[in-house]
Amino acid sequence: MANEKIYEPVGTTLAIGSLSPCYVSIGSVGFTGRDAIDNSCLSNSEFITKQPQTLKEHADIPFTAWGKIDDYDTIEGEINVNQQMTIAVPNVGSVQFWGFLQSFDVQETGIGEGWQATGVIVVTNVNGSGVETGPVYSAA
To answer: Can you give the pTM of this predicted structure?
Structure first.
C-alpha cells in the first residue's frame, strides 16, 4: 500500500436499492474496535486496566447528495430496509456490504443554491437471511 497513487473518485457510485441520487461525496466502510472494556479490580494499586473488545464494528457511512423532491417516495421506501449495497470506485475497486439507509435529510437552501441532502448508511453485517455477513472487497 505504500507509495500507491490515490485516484480522484470521479465516477464513484453507491447503490441503495432503487435510490440513485447525484452524489456529491461518499464515505466508505471503515472499522472501529468500539470502547475498551474496563477490567480494573480493587487490587489495582496505580492504574485503571482495560482490554479491547473481541468484536469489530463497521462505522456508519455518511454521504451528501443533491436532493430532488420527486425522489421523496423512493427515499422513504429505502429507509430502514436491510439490503445489499455496493460502493464502486473506478480504478480502485468496490466494496459490497449489507446495510440500511438510516437517514436522508434535505438541508436548507436559498437563492442561487440547490437542495443538498446528507445521509447515513448503517452497515449491519447481517444478510437477508439473518446470517452474519461482512463486507466483500474487490480490487479493480
So the answer is: 0.85
